[in-house]
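Running co-folding for flavin-adenine dinucleotide.
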Amino acid sequence: MTNNVIIVGAGIIGAACARALAVAGVEVTVIDRGTVAGGTSAACEGNLLISDKGPGHELVLAQYASTLWKHTVAELAEQLGDTFPSVEYDPKGGLVVATTVTGAGPLLSFAAGQRGAGVDAWTIDADEARRLEPDLGPAVEAAVYYPEDAQVQPTIATEALMASARLHGARVLENTPVLGPIHDSAGALVGVRIPSGELRAGRVLVAAGPWSGQVANLLGVYLPVRPRRGELLVTTRMRHRIFHKVYDADYVGAVGSDDGALQTSSVVESTASGTVLIGSSRQQVGFDSSLRVDALSEIAAKAIRLFPFLADVAVMRSYGGFRPFMPDHLPVIGEDPRMPGLWHATGHEGAGIGLSLATAVLIRDLMLGIIPPIDASPYSASRASLAPHLVDVA
Amino acid sequence: MGPRLFPFGVDPIRPEPTTPLTIILDGVPVAGVAGQSVAGVILAGGTLGFRRTSVHGTPRGVFCGIGICYDCLVEVNGRRDVRACQRRATEGDVVTTQHDALPPGGAAA
Amino acid sequence: MNASNIQVLVIGAGPAGLAAARAARARGASVTLLDSSDQLGGQFWRHLPPERPSAEERMLHHGWATFRELSETLEADDGCQIFRGAQVWAIERSPERVDGTAVGLPGAVHVVVGEPDGVGRQRLALRPNAIVLATGAHDRTLPFPGWDLPGVFTGGAAQALAKGERLAVGRRVVVAGAGPFLLPVAAALATTGATVLGVFEANRAAALVRGWLPNPWELVGAANKGTELAGYLAGHLRHRIPYRLGRAVVAAHGSDRVESVTIASVAADWAPIPGTEQRIEVDAVCVSHGFTPRLELAIAAGCALTADRFVKVDDGQGTSVSSVFAAGEITGIGGVDLALAEGRVAGHVAAGGTASDRELRQDRRRRRTFRGFAARLEAAHGIRSGWPGMLTDGTIVCRCEEVSFSALCGAAESTGSRSLRSLKLSTRVGLGICQGRVCGRTVEELLGRRLVGGLGDGVTADRRPIAAPIRLGELAADPVADVATSGVDEFDQRNSESTRGPT
Ligand SMILES: Cc1cc2nc3c(=O)[nH]c(=O)nc-3n(C[C@H](O)[C@H](O)[C@H](O)COP(=O)(O)OP(=O)(O)OC[C@H]3O[C@@H](n4cnc5c(N)ncnc54)[C@H](O)[C@@H]3O)c2cc1C
Ligand SMILES: Cc1cc2nc3c(=O)[nH]c(=O)nc-3n(C[C@H](O)[C@H](O)[C@H](O)COP(=O)(O)OP(=O)(O)OC[C@H]3O[C@@H](n4cnc5c(N)ncnc54)[C@H](O)[C@@H]3O)c2cc1C
Ligand code: FES
């Protein structure tokens, strides 16, 4: 098999994979119908979270990813130099607060389960929580501190990974949509059609975020990636008064849920520019990007419950994107058993920024035939939990 | 030198006498006229720069005058982020200039 | 639908909105007219507050009688409900077409009513049968070294403070930029007691002649405009204000406020010509290079735009979204008479009439005339491509986030990005509280010009789903759905002092 790959999608997943493969000497061509960092990776938050993941395969991937971020950020800074904007990596830690008595029990048992899986999760009392976050409101029924939670600026991280990939020889074609597959006589995928003609390679990796289902469809297979809309609020700049990532404990419930209806949970944190970012909603409304005031209202109300002083703070902007949702809540990483030459790195839902570096290592090792540092089979397209969803029912 | 209210005695539009009011800017009383904006009172009081920016700490004041640029933000009676050019001054308004330092290690663009 | 069952919501009470409200009422529709300001009149008829009655205020205005007639009639009309201090902060759109534009009437128009930037303002969610967008424009100022110093104003600021408060922004003032709007700005300053040291128009006589002369007879139709400009010019002569072509303010100087400016000759493309600099001591400088339409509500409603980025309208001022109409500066910069004519057509059609109705005959004709006039203004006074020649590395491009020209170029170069969204996020340009209103188009131009093939992500700086800041506490509160039962009317009366703000 030839040593070249086409990556469809120049979000953070495509960028991380392009970099890992290019560094390993693979000839990489990234194509995107828009631009680098023009999709979900520029319309999200940059949380690198451990705290929201219960024991299971996603947690394993996140734990592995968190071992990669620190030195990758240092490598990128060194390679790209001072003029490149900072990726704003900040291991600031997360504080999860149960604001209701009924929420306290589930939070504490969730944390206990996580500790069993090796997560640093410190149960602290309300006073300790207020020492970490002096402006917390009166409703603190239970609190858990997660020192491993960190963040990056996701757009800059995507640009930095892609810039580094380019320096290692990757080629990036923007404004280049995939139009269809090129198959060999045996039915293996050997390239894609693009507006200017054909692009051939030994492997095609789909990393098209929430549009991965569409791209897979164009290439001839069904993949159940669906968009799950999320909206966020950005406040005006203010004095620094929120020091960690602070979540309402109901965040944990919303992430794992299958419900398509509107759900919100409060995630509050300051950014490096002095604004406060408040997320977020989860809702399955297709690719409808229109503003939903009811969603914003709910997010606002929950944020005020955590930090009452926010009631007088002004929101200046909202934005949102589409999480690449998978029905069994795990990303798909690896070759598609149904079509030789077709690979996937997608379906990371609300954790694609954090999981990007780990995903890239798995893809690189699987493509190069090396045994990956963590077991890749739970994320395979042929895993049992995905099988019932691979039949196109729509 | 600087901004000033047109002395009403010489104004050809023949205004009726105005009603004075006073606001407190960073603890100092500033005299104005009923119906003026907070920005108008501050400007006529001789202060052009009444906010300090977050990155370079340089002074700012009124730029667009019509609520577009948000350069004139002040705190009025304890509420932040009020456009001084959009808010009418009322007697005794306590106006505080704003300066929001970036968080430690914050992005300096 | 019977016109009397139609509820028309008019957003913006400038010339276009007032005319629209009036025309919709004339057809029997019930009308809700709202504006974020506590006064009617918009930018053009900005006037003194009721606390400052003046016998001859009309001297400061053109068409003052028209304004008084429109506003007094609407205020006295029970079928027209007027909300002052009413900020539309969001419009929810109906489902999208594939091209991203909306199909039908938006979901709800979200408003907060109360003191400007207040806390605990009343929230309304309105669902009218038809909407007329008349949100106007604001002046556009290109960056130059020192433009962030206090004492540098837009022309609009000087105009607004002069008309609305009788305040001159300085004693020794220079007015510069481009366009006929510089003249009323200078006149307003001069009639408020300032000494205007000069008006500097960047375009040269040749451009002005090319723009004005191809169809001089059209000017006859635009008689009002002609008179107005003639009036300003006469005023200038009276006050002996020099009017210079082909010159620009290329820098403002001072430590914590402007103390002087550098004026230089500029080439036909506006690039400064080295060696022509001249320094003038001033205590204020007013700079405007044209106008930018306030498009955020139209975009939120899903309205399609024209290639030169105004709201696209048909003969009846209808936008691409059915039952949503647009009038005034958001459809093109053309001055007050065009705004009035478009407003009348929009209001009439929104209330169930058709564009070809007899009563609109005169308005259709005026609209044609003044649109021709507007096109020539743009040809004569439009921004030319050499203006970035004024920028130095350290010139602030984005005032809110203090992003310098070199920081912007550096990020574009080092990331190699062609995505406006990405470049905004990596430099913070346009991400501040004005949401790119001041720098958005400038940044698009600077980046688009530097990046081969232009920006590749189709993102524009005009999209602002949240059109004005809203406090989280207000956002968390439930809106009142029905104007009739909102109680805002009484609220408005009760708090008439505190709901007032001089937009
Ligand atoms: C509101 C919100 C908040 C979030 N918060 C976090 C968080 O805090 N932490 C975290 O880890 N994750 C978060 N996420 C999730 C994260 O953003 C995503 O998982 C991640 O960005 C996905 O990256 P991607 O590269 O797979 O997709 P994208 O960034 O969407 O990239 C896909 C690319 O594919 C391209 N493409 C699509 N179709 C085609 C085609 N036919 N041909 C060519 N190219 C095509 C697109 O143009 C796009 O550039 C959040 C998401 C949202 C919506
Ligand atoms: C500061 C300024 C001064 C001007 N002076 C002159 C002049 O002297 N001579 C001249 O020929 N032209 C002048 N112009 C040009 C002027 O814009 C037009 O001639 C005319 O006023 C346009 O009328 P309009 O109705 O389209 O818009 P405008 O008069 O601008 O009215 C729009 C109204 O919509 C309101 N609005 C906008 N968004 C919202 C929202 N989200 N919620 C609620 N309300 C909203 C605004 O408060 C405003 O009152 C000036 C423009 C500006 C910006
Ligand atoms: S001066 Fe621009 S918003 Fe007040």
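Result summary
Chain B touches chain C through 58 residues (CB under 8 Å).
The mean pLDDT of chain B is 93.
Job closed.
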